[in-house]
Structure formats: structure tokens, C-alpha cells
Amino acid sequence: MAIGIWVLNDQLHLQQAALASSQPHGARVLLVESLSVLTTKPHIQKQILFWAAQRAFAAELRLAGWVVDLVEAPSYEDALNSWIANHGIGELRLMTPSDRPIKLAIEKLAANSKCAWQLRWFDNNQFIWSQAEFANWAQGKRSLRLEYFYREGRRRFGVLMDGDQPLGGQWNFDKENRKPPKTGLKGPEALWFTPSETTNAVIKKLEELQPIYELSGISKPFKWAVSRQQALLVLENFISTRLADFGPYQDAMVQGESTLWHALLSPYLNLGLLHPLEVVHRLEAEGLRKKVPLASLEGVLRQIIGWREYTQGLYHHFGDSYPLSNALAAVQPLPEFIRNHSKSGMACVDNVLAELSNSGYLHHIQRLMILANLGLLAGWNPQEYVAWFNSQFVDAHDWVMQTNVIGMGLWADAGMLASKPYAASGKYIQRMGTYCKGCSYDPAERSGPVACPFTVLYWDFLGRHQERFRNHPRMALMIKQLDKFSQSERQAIGATAAGFEWAQRSGLQ
After folding, report:
1. What residues contact 497, with CB distance under 8 A and at least 6 apart?
2. Confidence check: pLDDT of 293 > 90
3. SS3 state of residue 143
């Protein structure tokens, strides 16, 4: 009975569990490049990254002695069935996918296959916490707070610890890492790469397919790393040029500065090119050796050992019904300017959509406080918006976007993840970004033709949901502020909000 190992395109690591179950001479490896993924209209740079990284990994596997078949096919079903039949595969091994829908789809393929073969799963080893370990941590807890999970991770893996206490005497330096951008703020140049011949072949293929499948974004310049070796260089570049100053301005948004001091490691962690624990240990060792400010070092480690592991754990813990969450009954369809990366008239939105179109990337505050915030305030359908986020970002996967958009961004889960909606007016964007200068809208105005849509919709959002949040410990103060508005001002806010065709109509009375 021949053994086959199917390596999914976000499991690109030689030590991944299915590969580790065999030796190169004992199994044949399958990688699939399926046209079916293009029906979701992904950003072209996301798809270039996924396919180019997969082709680079095929070459790495062959160098390690594996027999590898990279199959290009219309669908995964076509690729799998023909490959199993051609090579007499009797046992197919896979590492459990990070994304729940992919596992279900593979199980369906196995159940409907006309060939006789056995499907064998191996536990996913690309995260610091396994699903079982997270479930054990969560069991019996009334509140699954990030801070407590993060502290447990620090203790468990001995990260930034002084005995049983946190290094520096406190667990969290977040308050030191929220500085607004100062005039002329400019981050160091990021490390980018020139496409190889293999990557250029992928670019050419997808450029030809782009008009057929209506793929978003632009394909060139494509500058992302596509191999483990390149991803390791990005890590070292971050340590040497960006880590020390990562903390203070990690929430800043600067026009023309798409990366600032951000690590740019998430695409490579999520594809399996880097393992999170190796990144954590390397950052800790070098950060302490170089005497990096603790606020910066702790800040970036919290993103990896805390937030990333926490949201992945919650994704599986919350289960199948979570993606259907819509606690605020948001039903508005996504506007064309979001779908097409086109002009909205809002300088902040237009700038981040242009950056997204160019690279398939935005840093976390641009995603949360510009794009997700606008969707929250305008009442855009959560399921449509999750699907859009999942298609547009080079580091997007189902496990990433369900919790980050449903929970953190849109509060569609009624607080299962985030204690309060991350709703903010144009004043926040003005304070933390540089987009407002020269914009035709005024963030200080709550109604009228020049009022910033973020400000208008912020108060409109509070009006629509005032009874829900009237006694909320972190929202009640703003509802009391709303109560002080005159009837005429509330009506003016409602009328202005109703004028935005892409936003939910006002509930202010």
C-alpha cells in the first residue's frame, strides 16, 4: 500500500506533522494548485504568494529527498483523484488544517472518492498551543480573557520571565505603545525581494487569469518572501532595524508609510514558513542581548504568544456556529468602493485601500480602526465582510479572519471575544493618523455636508444601539454623552447618516 502525504499550502514546513510521520523514501508528496480557489476573487498578490511559496517548498522538499508532485488542476477533487489513481495511493496522510472548512471539504472528498484509500490525520503542530491544550486551559472558565491566556503562555514557555515573575515587574507595557505619529514620522525601509524565475512564472499565470476571475489588486511589484530562507531574513531584518522602535508607534497610521516598524512576519507564520515558537525565542534572545526597550520587545511578543495563539484557540473553541454571528443585526451589503478598492471620498479609507491594492497588506490598526471600524459603524453584513477580508490580505486565513473580524472588528459575537465594540469617531483617526490633513471632511463635525462619515456614523451607531449599551460598563459613558444632544442635533446626525448610501440608515430619534 503506497503512502501519500498531501501538504496544504499553509503547511510549508519540513517538520510539519504529516511529513514528520514518514521518511522521504517512504511516501510520495502531493501539492495542489487548484483554479477553484480563484472563484473567491482573491487579491492577486495573495494568490501569487500562496502559489509561489508552494512551488518554492516543492523544490525544498525535493532537495531533502522527497518525491513530490505539484499538480495543477481545475479543482482539488480532480487533482486528488487522478493522483491517487495514478500512483496507487492506499493511505493519504494530512496534517489537520488550521481552517475548519478545509478539513470538512477534505473529509467530503474522501467520503465521495471512487478509489479505495484511507484518510489519516495528524495533529497540527504549527502553533504554540495545540487545540487540546487550549481547550484544557479554557475548560471551566467563565471569562476567556486574553491577558490571562497571555500570562499563562509566558509562564508555560518561560518567555520574558524572572523566576515566576514577569521581567521588568509587569506583564503588559501596552500603555507605552500608543503614541500618535509625530510630524515627519518615517519608519525604516522594509526588506523586500526580487521575484525568482519560478515566482515570475506564477505572476504570469495569474496575470492571465486575473480578468477571467476578476482578481483584485495589482500584481507588480511583487516583493514578498516566498521561501523559508527569505522569511528568516525578514525576521533578522526586523530584529536589526525595527524591533527596538516597534513599540511606541505600533498604533500610528502615517500616509505613505505602509509598514513603519511592523514586523511583516504574519504571512510567513501563517504559511508555515516560520514556526511561532522559534520566532519568539529568537526575538527574546536577540532583544535581551541588544537591550531592546522592554516595551517594544514585550509588545511584539504579546502579538505572537498572546493574540495570535489566543484567536486561533478561540476559533476552534467557539465552533461551527461562530461564523454566523450577527449580534447587531448588521445587514448592509459591502459598497463598491470596498469591493473595487476605489474612491470613497474619505482620505483615510482611500489611502488604505490604495495600499491594500498595491500589496495585499495593511498593518493591524489600519485594518481595525479604518476598515473594520467603518464596517461596524455603517452596519455592513459581517459574513460578507469576513469573506472580503479573507480574500484580500496576504496573511488571511479563515482562522485569522473569523475571530479578528467577527469578534474584534465588528462585535458581531456580542462580546465573546472583545469586551466592547472598537467603535471610534473621526477624532481618533485624526489623533492616531495623518490622513485627515487635506481631506474634504472635518472629523470635528457631527452633521452636515463636511462632517466626517466616521464621526457621523459613530454617533449614529450609538443611537441605533443605545439600549443595548446603556448599562455597558465601557460604553455607558458615551451613551450618556449622546443623551445630552438636543433633538435637533440628533435629527441632523440622522439625516447626514442617511445620506451615505453605503451605510445603514439612522436609528437616532
Report:
1. 456, 457, 460, 503, 505, 506, 508
2. yes
3. coil
Q: How far is CA 419 from CA 144, 152, 413, in A?
A: 11, 20, 10
Per residue in 216-238, pLDDT (tens digit) is 999 999 999 999 999 999 999 99
Contact 365, 251 (CB under 8 A): yes
Q: H/E/C letters for each residue in 252-308?
A: CEECCECCCCCCCCHHHHHHCCCCHHHHHHHHHHHHHHCCCCHHHHHHHHHHHHHHH
DSSP label at 334?
Answer: P
Check if the beta carbon of residue 81 is closer than 8 Å to that of residue 236: no
**Bridge partners of 72?**
33
Contacts of 247 (CB under 8 A, 6+ apart): 173, 176, 177, 293, 295, 296, 297, 298, 299, 300
Q: Judge contact between 392 and 215, C-beta under 8 A.
A: no
Q: Cite the beta strand spans of 326-434 per DSSP E.
A: none
Q: What is the mean pLDDT of the chain?
A: 96
Give exposure, 409-441, as e/b (b: 16+ Cβ within 10 Å): bbbbbeebbbeebebbbbebbbebbbbbeebeb
Element (H, E) at 355: helix 347-359
User: Over the stretch 243-291, which tens digit does the pLDDT of each residue have?
Assistant: 999 999 999 999 999 999 999 999 999 999 999 999 999 999 999 999 9
Q: Is the CB of residue 171 less than 8 Å from the CB of residue 161?
A: no
The rounded distance, in Å, linking the Cα atoms of 124 and 119 is 15
pLDDT number for residue 501: 86
Task: Provide the pLDDT for residue 505.
Answer: 64
Specify the pTM: 0.96
Whether 55 shows a pLDDT value over 80: the answer reads yes
Measured distance CA(452)–CA(442) in Å, rounded: 5
- Residue 483 CA to residue 478 CA, distance in Å, equals 9
Cβ-contact 358, 192 below 8 angstroms: no
- Give the list of residues 6+ apart from residue 225 with CB closer than 8 angstroms, or none: 193, 231, 233, 234, 267, 268, 273
Q: Exposed/middle/buried for 167, CB within 10 Å: 0-12, 13-18, 19+?
A: middle
Query: Mind giving me the DSSP string for 56-74?
Result: HHHHHHHHTT-EEEEEEES
Q: What are phi and psi of 256, to 5 degrees?
A: 85, -5
Position of cell 474522501?
110
> What integer is the mean pLDDT of 126-153?
95
Give the Cα separation of 241 and 263 in Å (integer): 10
